[in-house]
Structure formats: structure tokens, C-alpha cells
């Protein structure tokens, strides 16, 4: 499959790994049980912003990318966004801990694992080592309305929350 572009249908069969947030396991040292998150099904009738990045707890990702979405979450919701999700190749345990480290509770932002960068590879947006490129995709009821990949690894321009807000 080639890179997604506006007008494309979001692919069928896209499944990520995910640990749902529960208050009883809010401590960063608590582990939940990973479950499959069928994005194709869950997002079919919703407006979704999914942003991907090279890895949890990495400099640009932790200092700017995720905080930008946390800060702009109310504005995204005002624009009709139902789901905001961050995606990386890290396993579901790491993604869950990263969400907790960022103070994200409930399903405000889903911290999804793309094991082995399977989805990112399927759209050509992963590097040779299997790490996810930095990108953002907006899906509106199953149709891609925005899809942009950053021009370089540590650049944060087209996938940051502000750029997505301007585009939708």
C-alpha cells in the first residue's frame, strides 16, 4: 500500500495494541493487560486525529509533540474531533506508561502501539529499522482528509497539533 492521502478510505483491518486506562492502575508502575484495538472499526463513524512518532520517551516526542496535543485537545474537540490517538512502534506497556507520565487519563488521548510498525510500514511511513516516521492523519467517518509526513526525523511542522488544527 502507498502513503495515505486526502480522499482515500482508511484501510480495513488496522489493529493496534492498547492498554485501556483505568483509575485503579493509574500509577505508572501498574500494568494493565494489552488488548487489540480495531482502529478500522472503532474509527469508522468518527472524526479522528492520529499522530505518529518515532518512539515514546524520546526528546522531540516528549518535549513538544505529545504536549502540543495535550494542550490543544480542547480546540480539537471544538472542531468535532471524537478521538485523538498517538501511535508508536513501542509495545503497549511502554505506551501506557508514557500516557501516565504525561498525566493523560481516561481516553482523552489513546496511546496506541503499532507493533513492529506494521501499519506505518503498510503505508510506507516507517524507516529501514522499523521505526515509525513522524506523521499525522485525520480521518472523518472512514475517509482520510489530512495525511502529512514530516520531512525529517526531528522536525515537527506538519504533524504538530497546530498544523492539524489549521487543516481541519
UniProtKB/TrEMBL annotation:
User: PROSITE patterns under this entry?
Assistant: THIOREDOXIN_2
Q: Which organism is it from?
A: Talaromyces stipitatus (strain ATCC 10500 / CBS 375.48 / QM 6759 / NRRL 1006)
Q: What is this protein called?
A: Thioredoxin peroxidase
Its domain of life reads: Eukaryota
What is any one of the record's Gene Ontology cellular component terms?
mitochondrion
Which keywords accompany this UniProt record? Answer: Antioxidant, Oxidoreductase, Peroxidase, Redox-active center
- UniProt xrefs under InterPro entries: PRX5-like, Redoxin, Thioredoxin-like_sf, Thioredoxin_domain
Gene3D superfamilies, per this entry? Glutaredoxin
Amino acid at each position: 500500500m502507498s502513503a495515505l492521502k486526502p480522499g482515500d478510505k482508511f484501510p480495513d483491518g488496522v489493529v493496534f495494541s492498547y492498554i485501556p486506562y483505568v483509575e485503579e492502575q493509574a500509577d505508572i508502575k501498574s500494568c494493565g493487560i494489552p488488548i487489540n484495538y480495531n482502529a478500522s472499526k472503532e474509527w469508522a463513524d468518527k472524526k479522528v486525529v492520529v499522530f505518529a512518532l518515532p518512539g515514546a520517551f524520546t526528546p522531540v516526542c516528549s518535549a513538544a509533540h505529545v504536549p502540543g496535543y495535550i494542550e490543544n485537545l480542547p480546540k480539537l474537540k471544538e472542531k468535532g474531533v471524537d478521538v485523538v490517538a498517538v501511535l508508536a512502534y513501542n509495545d503497549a506497556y511502554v505506551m501506557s506508561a508514557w500516557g501516565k507520565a504525561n498525566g493523560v487519563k481516561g481516553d482523552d488521548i489513546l496511546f496506541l502501539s503499532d507493533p513492529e510498525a506494521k501499519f506505518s510500514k503498510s503505508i510506507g511511513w516507517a524507516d529501514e529499522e522499523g521505526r515509525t516516521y513522524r506523521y499525522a492523519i485525520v480521518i472523518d467517518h472512514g475517509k482520510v482528509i489530512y495525511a502529512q509526513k514530516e520531512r525529517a526525523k526531528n522536525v515537527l511542522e506538519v504533524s504538530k497539533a497546530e498544523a492539524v488544527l489549521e487543516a481541519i
